[in-house]
Amino acid sequence: MDTIFALASARGKSGVSVIRISGTRAHDVARAMAGSLPPLRQATLRMLRNEAGERLDSALVLTFAKGASFTGEDVAELMVHGSMATVAAVERCLAVDHGLRLAQPGEFTRRALDNGIMDLTQVEALSDLLEAETESQRRQALRILDGAIGRVVGVWRRHLVKAAALVETAIDFVEEDVGNFDTQILAELRAVEGGVQSELAGQRARERIQSGFEVALIGPVNAGKSSLLNALAGRDAAIISDVAGTTRDVLEVRMDVGGFAVTFLDTAGLRDTTEEVEAIGIARGKARAEQADLRIILHPADQPAMMIETTDRDLVVRSKADINAMPNGISAHTGQGVDRLLDQITERLSAMTARDGVTVRERHQQAMQQAATALTDAIDKIAEGDYIAELVAADIRIAINALDVLIGVVDVEDVLGDIFSSFCIGK
Amino acid sequence: MKQYDVIVVGGGHAGVEAALAAGRMGAKTGLVTFRKDDLGVMSCNPAFGGLGKGHLVREIDALDGAMGRASDYAAIQYRLLNRSKGPAVQGPRVQADRVRYRDAIRHIVAEAPNVDVIEAEVTALELEGGRVVGVRIGDDSALLAKAVVLTTGTFLGGKVFIGDRSFPAGRMGNAASTVLAQQLRGLGLPMGRLKTGTPPRLRSSSIDWDMLETQPGDDIPAYMSFLTNHTIAPQIACAITHTNPETHQIVRENLSRSAMYGGQIEGVGPRYCPSIEDKITRFADKDSHQIFLEPEGLDSDTVYPNGISTSLPAEVQEAYVRTIRGLQNVEILQPGYAIEYDYLDPRALDLSLQLSALPGLFLAGQINGTTGYEEAGAQGLVAGLNAACMAFDREPLHLSRADSYIGVMIDDLTARGVSEPYRMFTSRAEYRLSLRADNADQRLTPLGQTLGCIGDGRRVAFEEKNGRLQSARAKLTAKTFTPGQLRNAGYKISEDGTRRTALELLGLPGFGFDVLETLEPDFKTIDEDTRAQLGREMIYAAYLTRQESQIASLRADEARAIPDGIDYSAINGLSRELADKLSRSKPKSIAQAGRIDGMTPAALVLILARIQAVGRRESA
């Protein structure tokens, strides 16, 4: 397998950029550039030079041995200063001077997979880690790498094996006087169904950790929504003017709020209008705000009555506090209250994600949805009584197969093993 | 020196089906057995079929094997197990008269085309150039063949245990095949020991039948063979009795005298067929176990007490049996015994049941680690067909998990091996809703016709039945109804605007043929059997549709063959443990590899990648 390299941290300006090299020549090339290599797994400062002996950067050099590295191959990591020019110079040295190949997207991970360093779930979680923009995404990705999925779903697995064993006993060992297990089968299935349903309920918030939350700014025209957006973003993202109805379309700004990826939506101010384009903008803004995770309703200090109906998930703030001196209000101009608003948003988002869910990816959700449906089918059949046992068995099998995506395979031997250890089978 | 196309060694259920199948294929076949009289002998319980096993019998029958017809001839009680459940898990079962069964098999073998029965002991396999080219028999003459099927049952290295006594035997009263066993061991093939047990045989006239609960057969029998249309032998009832604390006490006190518990036996016994010693030890809290008293035949004074197999000394057997209700004065005709025998790790076989390392040699039955007449017969059938295919230089028959229980069994055996004697259960078949006993002919007879193992009688009967089914299906599919039409006719139906075929209606609650007839009088012409068959199909319609894509992907994975001799230890990243498992089980396809215990998606990706790499290299 040839030796590959790539920037392992996010491309762009940053404090430190990590360039990862993996393959049989990784250590040799790193040694050639750094002069000498520190002991394995000890990050040490070295001056990196190209083949002409020119200094590239002073960098932390870290090596891992084959079998004990991210990819399972010999790996070297060069932590250089995060300027585009420096990274480019090091990459050029690796490619041109040493003839290494730039890795394809995901190739490190693929090698880790091919070398048996990780399974597919871990690979998936890892891809999240690599893309993690924020702290909370990383925490969640790490939790999966740790095998948390296996632990939760492992309990479901035991219930399902038991339920399957009981149903199959009634089918395959009808000649044995083993009795009727409907009550127990129902209990086993309901336990899993409940668990799966509650996982699914926690899904939306957790998906948001992946994709980011949406927070909509709404309010009447000229409430200062766009000013607030700019204050939050620290740049002029939105055009602001004193002319009411300046914002026509929904404007999105993505940023990190207390560790959460948040997309703020600036919407057209709400008012009755005869202007067609503005009316469309208002309708569109309303629709987006409806689907947002959180609505921040701006109530300008210079307007006495609240015109917008609010719900529990809304945060109402008094804006333009600088005009009408309001201690708890905010002002995009003076910055008053902006930090407090960010704290409030963080608090709300934390509450939404507080459920300790463990599943992340879309496919996990689909798998659980499928399992939940099959379990409900099985439960309904048994609860109705006089059911066709092999159809209940088929439902359970569908649920088990669906959850395989999460936990691995439940085999007929697992089911038979449970039967033979629980019942005295055999004439 | 005699030249055959196929030689079959062994005249048990596997051997008989193998020889008959090869003969039906037109292969000149020699069936070598110790004693001609032993053809078709039932050495264990006097019954055929049951759950999973009944499916196997129907499948053997669908490929024109003998077991179904012979067991119908011998049947003295019919019971369809799971009658109250759906058709997919109903298992036809019969109590069989030993003498009648043996007579039926002897008759079928005698009438069979191309089959010679040779009475001899096979002492060795004839090898030439790494192939099996025949067998050497007792008088040291050789029988040559293009393919040999070995069906040695428990005779290979067989050893019988009664209490602390033990002696070599194939079954009680028959010599074991020790010479052949030695040769096979010498070939360095992966072998192991398994055990099985039998109960004491009781004298019927010494049983107090009047005080026992009886179990009669079904009023409407479900026949084992698709060709049978009436009950042949007189019918009898069985009886049920139970062990009790006193029985358990005696067994417990004598456990150390049991061959199985005294440590004389190294072989592994089946968990689903425990000896009475096992039952009492492992399920100590149960103070009673069920026993079925099964008469061994119409004119036989022997009863087989199903449920108390044992290897205790004869006098202990007598003592505990007499504690049982109805058996107070019972006379033991033959004590129960355990038998330990050699088996060959079936992972060494390919999907045609040929030994990969020794071309020309096919194995079937208990030698592959299975138990049961039905499992043996089914393997014999496949081995016999494939031996004939080899003799004629034709493509082998590989059955799939998606088309038959036989396919499930062979796949399980060749991919996973056995850790105890392998027995069929319906739960082993993931597609059991479509692999039903009632449609075995629909699934397999056409396959058999293509292969050439279906006799004229069956062909005509099948084509006639199939014709009726197809025409009824066509009628029911051609006629469609709107919800409005159904409502106007006075039937409840969801008003979803969907036009439904009559066949689809049949799958809905409340739409039997009685209703369909009122909608379309032409349906009255559909006969009862066809109606029943279509009704059974439609019960599972929704589930079967859902399974189609799974079956398609299974077949795709089955088609991704893993070449022989792939070096798993050279696959980078495959764990040592998994590489070892793969090397041992030699999966024949990605589908088989995927079912290996501990297999990970990542590892499958690796293997797939490796196959692709090999493929690329070879095509480059």
TrEMBL record, chain A:
Entry's cofactor comment: Binds 1 potassium ion per subunit.
Phylogenetic classification of the source organism: Bacteria, Pseudomonadati, Pseudomonadota, Alphaproteobacteria, Rhodobacterales
GO molecular function: hydrolase activity
Superkingdom classification of source: Bacteria
Keywords: Cytoplasm, GTP-binding, Hydrolase, Magnesium, Metal-binding, Nucleotide-binding, Potassium, tRNA processing
General function of this protein: Exhibits a very high intrinsic GTPase hydrolysis rate. Involved in the addition of a carboxymethylaminomethyl (cmnm) group at the wobble position (U34) of certain tRNAs, forming tRNA-cmnm(5)s(2)U34.
Protein's cellular compartments: Cytoplasm
Annotated ranges, domain TrmE-type G: 212-350
The protein, known as: tRNA modification GTPase MnmE
InterPro entries linked: G_TrmE (IPR031168), GTP-bd (IPR006073), GTP-bd_TrmE_N (IPR018948), GTPase_MnmE (IPR004520), MnmE_dom2 (IPR027368), MnmE_helical (IPR025867), P-loop_NTPase (IPR027417), Small_GTP-bd (IPR005225)
Subunit and partners: Homodimer. Heterotetramer of two MnmE and two MnmG subunits.
